[in-house]
Design a protein that fits this description.
The chain is α+β, with helices and mostly antiparallel strands. The chain is 29% helix and 38% strand. It has a domain of 133 residues: Roll (Pnp Oxidase, Chain A), CATH 2.30.110. Helix 4 packs across helix 5. The chain is elongated and about 55 Å long. Its cofactor is FMN.
């Protein structure tokens, strides 16, 4: 198999985006090694692919940020209902540069910016209503919000990418690409 898995990903991604009606078509499940020895998974939004790396963003002091700082071996799982395809990516996560974090933060809507500047994602709150009121007040004042120091993102360099196309016969088409000595090696695998 000579085809680049990144090229396949981009083609499949475009096909799904062209067909989908879901509200957040960029959603992807990010899995990390939990600090409590359990795997941890949550949905994040794929921002783009830069230099063949998958870009995600969020608070660096959140549980996902803490877990990635401890062990940067992560997995991404895409499930696309319209095209009935799944893509699994395993890779190494690294913090994105500050200028890129600034760019992604600037692109967010005011509500998202204010939530990120006030909230400590995943931490306990004594009064959620009070916190929500503060956010609403700041949104209504249309406050300018700078990117918090603990907000950034990760660039995930893939080392393994598996493509699965579901078939009604259950004889699913699966291809696995693994990075070996800087080159992608692909093989067909059983369903």
């Amino acid at each position: 198999m000579k085809t680049s898995p990144i090229k396949i990903f981009k083609e499949w991604y475009k096909e799904e985006l062209d067909l989908t009606q879901v509200r957040i078509p960029t959603a992807v499940c990010l899995s990390t090694h939990g600090t409590d020895e359990f795997p941890n998974a949550r949905f994040v939004s794929l921002k783009e692919i830069i230099n063949d790396a998958f870009i995600i963003t969020g608070p660096l002091n959140s549980l996902k940020g803490i877990e990635i700082a401890k062990d940067n071996h992560v997995a991404l799982t895409f499930w696309w209902t319209e095209t009935e395809r799944q893509i699994r990516v395993q890779g190494i996560a690294r913090k994105i540069p500050e200028r890129l974090a600034d760019k992604y933060f600037h692109e967010r809507d005011i509500y998202s910016k204010i939530v990120s500047s006030i909230c400590e994602q995943g931490k306990e709150t004594k009064d959620a209503k009070l916190l929500e009121q503060e956010i609403q007040q700041r949104v209504s004042r249309k406050e300018m919000v700078d990117r918090p120091e603990d907000w950034g993102g990760f660039s995930i360099d893939p080392v393994r990418i598996e493509f699965l196309e579901f078939k009604a016969s259950r004889f699913h088409d699966r291809k696995l690409f693994e990075l070996e000595n800087g080159k992608w090696k692909g093989k067909q695998i059983q369903p």
